[in-house]
Amino acid sequence: MFKAPRGTSDILPQEKAYWRYIEEKAVYLCQLYGYQPLNTPVFEDYQLFAHIAPDGADIIKEMYVFEDRSGQKLALTAEGTAPICRAYLEHGLFNLPQPIKLYYIIPAFRYERPQAGRYRQHHQLGCEAIGDADPALDAEVIELMYRFLSSLGLSGLFIEINSIGCRQCQPDYVEALKKYYSAYRDRLCPACKIRLARNPLRLLDCKEVSCQEIITGAPKITGYLCSECQTHFQSVQKYLTELGISYQLNHRLVRGLDYYTRTVFEVKPEGKGVQIALGGGGRYDNLIEELGGKPTPAVGFAAGIERIIIALKNQNVIVPTLPKPVAYVACLGTQAKLEATKLVSRLRHQGIAAIQATGDKSLKSQLRQANSLDVKYTVIIGEKEVANETAVLRDMSSGEQKTVPLSEIASLLEKR
RNA sequence: GUGGGCGUAGCCCAGUGGUUAAGGCGCCAGGUUGUGGCCCUGGAGAUCGUGGGUUCAAAUCCCACCGCUCACCCCA
């Protein structure tokens, strides 16, 4: 038997209730904040993603890379920001008044070992504000992300923010960090030895007990920010405070993707066990230039839909169920079935969700099915009703029923 | 990529070497003549994840692979 590939899953109707709920909230809030939908393809030129992280980075190694029949090297979308920037450039969106605000819900693919909240195909809601360096946008994006998650009914969310500087000041900090760490080289965990050489900022993120002490004494990036970055970061914080968004400064927060500059942030749910980030993002003022555009500042976030669903379940948030059919049309006999078929069609044309009994089931089993479908009404058409051009309309919760003219069924149901 | 736990019908699960693999949920059909939800009765549904091995005999022991899961790594 075939199974869904590892790290992927089918989303069954019951699960879809969560998706509907999340997507509706997302679409509503995004338009409320002035973000417009833009969808990018599920695969892109492989080279597009080469810009989001250094060569040896995991996210590059974890990409689904393949060649199509023409030999072009492609990759399944690994994250949403680079494709959005590509589309921004490709369609000349920089010619419109800036900033451009876009959102998307797309699948993203990473070949990694699956576990809770980490899948080979997952889905992200992302929002990007491109073309303006205003710290008010950083705050707006953070507020939007926070509001989105809390409006879903999630509680205990906490936001962490940090600034990782810009091309001017970050290198100074990285130097200082390297210098500090080189004194402890032999005490570092194996992973950190690699980080020291390859991606020193990630040293701060290490969870190894033996490295904690070293991290504590490490220089903090906030001490190395250039005056512009400092001012920017302070403004972001001021805006957040004014907006009533509470946040925690975490000078150890760095993000895995290469393109981030200045503001970075994450949202996590409180609770025991691992705290996986529901969403994260930051400013990426260099990415568009790296992709071949003019220097263009931008800021955005992405939230993981599957992770949000996990959090909703953990917190026992009740989500609205998917709509149920209103009427079930049962029938007895060939002639009745014909009438039932016509009635169901008429009901549907009038916007009344209706289900027709199919097969040759007994009335008993038809009603059983109606019951399990949780319909409000069952319409029963038998020999007698066919002869009289009537139908029995049964209210499934009260069990009351009456015989009415067939032609009136639709309008009777419409009123309820 | 590293390490731990697990893998019995659609779902939950009993069964740790020996006749036709148990139960619950769900599903299907009945409980007289055209009526659901409760109850009762019956039925269908399992190559016991896959492939090897040990043994007279394996769902039960061993190995490999696959998958699930948890932690690490990384990330949404």
In brief:
The protein is built from 15 helices and 16 strands. The chain has 416 residues and is of the alpha+beta class.
Overview of the molecule:
The chain has 416 residues and is α+β, with helices and mostly antiparallel strands. The chain has two domains: 13-169 and 225-314, Bira Bifunctional Protein, Domain 2 (BirA Bifunctional Protein, domain 2); 327-415, Rossmann fold, CATH 3.40.50.800. It has helices spanning 13-32, 46-50, 58-61, 81-90, 135-151, 170-182, 190-198, 209-217, 227-242, 287-290, 305-314, 334-349, 363-373, 383-388, 409-415, and strands at residues 36-37, 43-45, 65-67, 73-76, 100-109, 121-130, 157-163, 247-249, 261-269, 279-283, 298-304, 327-331, 354-356, 377-381, 390-395, 401-405. The chain has an eight-stranded mixed beta sheet, with helices on both faces. It has a five-stranded mixed beta sheet with strand order 13-12-14-15-16, sandwiched between helices. Strands 2-4-3 form a three-stranded antiparallel beta sheet. Strand 15 (390-395) and strand 16 (401-405) form a beta hairpin. Helix 5 (135-151) runs parallel beside helix 9 (227-242). The model has no long low-confidence stretch (mean pLDDT 91).
Quick tags:
5-stranded mixed beta sheet, elongated, 38% helix, BirA Bifunctional Protein, domain 2, RNA-binding, 15 helices, 416 residues, 2 domains, alpha+beta, Rossmann fold, 8-stranded mixed beta sheet, single chain
Predict the CATH topology of the largest domain. BirA Bifunctional Protein, domain 2
Termini Cα gap: 46 Å
Which structural class should the secondary elements be placed in?
Answer: alpha+beta
- What would CATH call the homologous superfamily of the largest domain? Bira Bifunctional Protein, Domain 2
Uncertain residue ranges? none
CATH architecture of the largest domain: 2-Layer Sandwich
